[in-house]
Amino acid sequence: MQLRPAELIINDDGSIYHLNLLPEDIATTIITVGDPDRVHQVSNYFDRIELKKGKREFVTHTGIKNGKRISVISTGIGTDNIDIVLNELDALVNIDFSTRTLKSKHTPLNIIRIGTSGAIQPNIPVDSFLISEYAIGFDGLLHFYEHENMGFTDIEDAFITYCDWNANKARPYIIKYADNLAKLFIDNRIRLGFTATNTGFYGPQHRQLRLKPSQMELMQKLSSFSYQNLQLTNLEMETSGIYALAHLLGHHAVSLNCILANRATGEFSKTPSESVDELIKFCLGRLS
């Protein structure tokens, strides 16, 4: 089947529409970060940078670290941007742009998110690292694609019941990291977590400035929810979307979180940039 121009949008220079990248521009190991400025923070540790491109909030650097080719790309904030980035990265390796047809051989990508997050359990220290073993998505992105049961409906149902989940909101979905990729990062300094992905930073994460969140007790329910000793650990805004689309597209994904805030204790990191930098160095060391 040939993809129509309105489905696969290719720029005049042959690059994919939003990311402005050519198929040869990316490695099969890709680090995603939210902040475009963090791309430089990662690529600063490359031995050599072979490519720098950017369009809108999407900045990409590809280079070499200890002989391994790695790309780092900024996604911006939220699962709406993740929908763009994951689909376009997949298109770069699994669609023939010259014929607008799917390639017969599938190329899997290893996708590692390096992001910041806020803990909701008091025993998770600020400036610590957490790997999202599971993610629960409140974003609804998965439901816009055909998919089979991910195997966690029992936990989803228990969560919906316990939190008295509003039927006007998308059904939460749960998905796990890619075990084969995650094993690279298992370490005593990184705790395993159950991450909640939210659709915003203020009301969806129950911060109140001038607008009052619709369900003020939900934060307490999130932190106290437990299913067979599985507790929610932290909040952020991209992981469930990355895990969901990576799974559907046949890629491997893992999310590494630097805990900059603890919502239970009210603390915020005094050295956020330095803490994120430590996570970047840890990640690159394991990859290369």
Domain module count? 1
CATH superfamily (homologous) name = Nucleoside phosphorylase domain
CATH topology: Rossmann fold
In CATH's first tier, which class applies? Alpha Beta
The whole-angstrom Rg is 19 Å
State the end-to-end CA separation. Answer: 38 Å
User: What's the β-strand tally?
Assistant: 15
Work out the strand percent: 25-35%
**General shape:** globular
Sequence stretches where pLDDT stays below 50 over 5 or more residues? none
What integer is the average pLDDT?
Answer: 95
Spatial strand sequence of the major β-sheet: 7-13-10-8-14
Structural class, judged by helices and strands? Answer: alpha/beta
Number of helices: 7
Task: Tell me what you see in this structure.
- It is an enzyme of class 2 (transferase).
- The protein is of the alpha/beta class and 288 residues long.
- Helices cover 25% and strands 29% of the residues.
- The chain contains seven helices and 15 strands.
- Helix 2 packs parallel to helix 6.
